[in-house]
Amino acid sequence: MVWFRKKEVMSKTEKAIITLLQQKEVFMDVEDIFLQLNPGCKRYSYAAVYHSVRTLNQKGAIVSEVRPFERRKYFRINVAWSARTLE
């Protein structure tokens, strides 16, 4: 029996986060990601961005880093995911 991996469906917010992190290629915290996705008007809620970042981190699409003396996590695109294209 052969098991096929179910096609992963990404939300609009997850796609936007992946695209942003592919363009920036630097570590960003959730607040920076939220502000970059909503430059002039609010398109994405903070809760949706926070949830999508956690989901992408669990999937392995983005990696996190905790810096000394800071309480927040910083995220960037995983090298293995950076070459993928979004559908």
From TrEMBL:
A Pfam family hit: FUR
Gene3D superfamilies named in the record: Winged helix-like DNA-binding domain superfamily/Winged helix DNA-binding domain
Gene source species: Sphingobacterium nematocida
Name the UniProt record assigns to this protein: Ferric uptake regulator family protein
GO molecular function terms attached to this record: DNA-binding transcription factor activity
